[in-house]
Design brief:
Elements: H1 2-26, E1 79-82, E2 88-90, E3 94-97, H2 101-115, E4 118-124, E5 129-134, H3 143-147, E6 156-164, E7 167-173, H4 183-196
Antiparallel strand pairs: 1-2, 3-7, 4-5, 5-6, 6-7
Length: 197
């Protein structure tokens, strides 16, 4: 009895699968994206900061059609995305500043205190660094990171100011001095950059 029932279930399942395959091919769907038109960019009010355009994400111009997108790279910043809490997220792990290291250290300190993205735990004027802790909780690791034992990034980090060729640079490092490129570090660096504009 169960063998007959199992065979009839197989036949029914096979008929449903074939019906879905054939039925979907009969539907004549209109391809909407072919009629898409480019719209002018949004106008940002003068009291707000416009995000820097990312040339890698822009659609190239078609021959004979004028493009309204500026393909020049941003002149000042490298902030291209928004991280958690609405804070800007830096795209690069190094923030260049056209300023002397002492002045840049003071400006970075003020930016850290006013950004509200992190709490300044310690200040080291001799080493030109700030020990900070992210104000919001770091994101929970994804499924595969939890399965294979990857730890969540630490909310504590060091914001380091160093001398460079044409001024100074700001990086976020861990306790061993290695540059951090994780989400909490890029959030802090993006908030500093947004405040220094």
């Amino acid at each position: 009895m169960s063998r007959v029932r199992w065979t009839s279930h197989r036949k029914l399942l096979l008929m449903v699968a074939l019906g879905l395959q054939v039925g979907c091919s009969w539907v004549d769907r209109q391809i909407i994206y072919e009629d898409a038109r480019e719209t002018p960019p949004l106008k940002v009010p003068s009291d707000l900061i416009a995000p820097a355009p990312n040339p890698a994400l822009q659609v190239p111009a078609v021959q004979g059609v004028a493009s309204n997108v500026d393909t020049a790279p941003p002149t000042l910043g490298n902030t291209v995305a928004v991280a958690r809490g609405g804070f800007p997220r830096a795209a690069n792990a190094v923030l260049p500043l056209a300023d002397a290291t002492d002045s840049a250290f003071r400006r970075v300190g003020i930016a850290l205190e006013r950004s509200a993205c992190c709490k300044v735990l310690a200040k080291n004027p001799e080493g030109l660094s700030y020990d900070v802790e992210l104000a919001s909780a770091p994101p929970r690791p994804g499924f595969f990171k939890r399965m294979f034992g990857a730890d969540a990034p630490s909310p504590r980090m060091i914001v380091q100011v160093a001398q460079a060729d044409a001024g100074s640079i700001v990086t976020v490092v861990d306790a061993s001095g290695a540059t951090r490129k994780d989400d909490p570090a890029m959030t802090v660096l993006g908030a500093v950059e947004a405040r220094l504009r």
